[in-house]
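Researcher: Let's walk through a ligand-bound prediction step by step. First, I give you the protein sequence. Second, the SMILES string for S-adenosylmethionine. Third, you return the three-dimensional complex as structure tokens. Ready?
Model: Ready.
Researcher: Here are steps one and two:
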Amino acid sequence: MATQLSLNFDVPGAQSDATLLRDPAFEQNKQDAIHRWVPWIAGFSAGFVGDALQHYLPDPGRRDIHVLDPFAGVGTTLVESLRRGYNVTGIELNPFAALAARVKCSAFTRDPGKLLSAIVSFERQARERTDPIDKAFERGDDVFQCTPAPKSRPPAAFRSRTPFFSPAVEQKVLHCLDLINEVADPHIRELMSLALGSILVQVSNYSYEPSLGSRAAAGKTNVLNADVVSLLSARLYMMYHDVIVYRDEMMQWTPLPSSRVIEGDARLMLQTVEEDSIDIVITSPPYLNNYHYVRNTRPHLFWLNFVSKPSDLKRLERSNFGKYWQTVRGAEPSKLQFNFPYLKQIIDEIAVKNPQKHVYGGKGWANYAIEYFNDCYTLCQNFYRTLRKGALAIIVLGNSIIQGVNVPTDLLFGHIGELCHLKLDEIHILRKKRVGNSIINSSIRNGGSYEISLYEAAVILRKD
Ligand SMILES: C[S@@+](CC[C@H](N)C(=O)[O-])C[C@H]1O[C@@H](n2cnc3c(N)ncnc32)[C@H](O)[C@@H]1O
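Model: Step three, the predicted complex:
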């Protein structure tokens, strides 16, 4: 049974159900121009961002507004803000997500004519180079003997239990990489890399369930061959189409709004974001659910050459907001860096669960929760410094159940904000019964009964 401690601090307008903000789930983005370019498991919906901007900016017509998303993901907040003429800064640790945010934010400045001719040329050459692979595959011949052979090589340090690609698909992906590397314009090259990244898993022997796992483990058959060139070309033509729409849309703004995507750690934002400069933050940090962004994008990181060795991945894991349970479970017990007795009580309750499991029990999970909330504290301190007076930070978070203990992350974050001199205006419940892997060793995962539902909430903090 999940347990719940009672709250002993007040939350103004606490946990009211939202009617003014749309569901933040990414699902709808799969149909929306620009947002549909790259699926991102934890992405926002464009509609949610639009609602938040409209409702919470005191004067949405002003042009000098600066929006910050320190966990930019694939750039949903940034793109929606740009579309409304606002200047944006995004910070994103994961290089693949940062690539997506960067390409999407600057796409309206690209020349559609140049883009189209690059796509047409790519498709033609890709077909010429990969047709022999399909023929060899149909005949049952060795696809590695096909000529021309691709120059690119699979990333040497990328390991997977099941071969990530079948031989035919792998050869085709390598040819596509060759062609992308040959593109002279760096912006078009980035856009094409992003397109390739967006279909990598689709043509592989892996799938998102929602974490990355082999297709076989999910009861699906392996992908022995796939029409990589058609899939990739279709994605590129879709991007081309969206660039035209985006350019038209952005023409209403003179001067054009500015955008900046920083590939880095949001906890260090004071190095890159000016103090008292931000009019609104709309963001969603990683939840307290140990969703492994780095592991789940390993194929993209290796195949698109963002990392080349396991220590590169380790560096990203260590910099991840809240760390990962795997990284901190065995460490010396961490300490909360601030005084918050209610949170301390929750963590102590987690720490004594399942002692027989050692670091895999409560002890390891308590360590993870402490690291997570210490990072929340740093983040709120940074918000206090970077927000202008009167500005808001809208933070979307989900509660968690850890070792059977309910952790109301939204309420806790709100109070941490107050410890950092921000005012907690309200908390809106956006979505109940969230699905995903956010349930850690709880009665829900074990099929038992439970009394605490999972939800997502928007925490609204203000700098007075
Ligand atoms: C919940 S997702 C945000 C998704 C985003 N709202 C969107 O629409 O795409 C959290 C993001 O935080 C990123 N992240 C994790 N640790 C970070 C850090 N220390 N600094 C910046 N970004 C980080 C993850 O890579 C992930 O993309």
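Researcher: And what stands out?
Model: Residues 22 and 168 are 43 Å apart (CA to CA). The longest strand covers residues 387-398.
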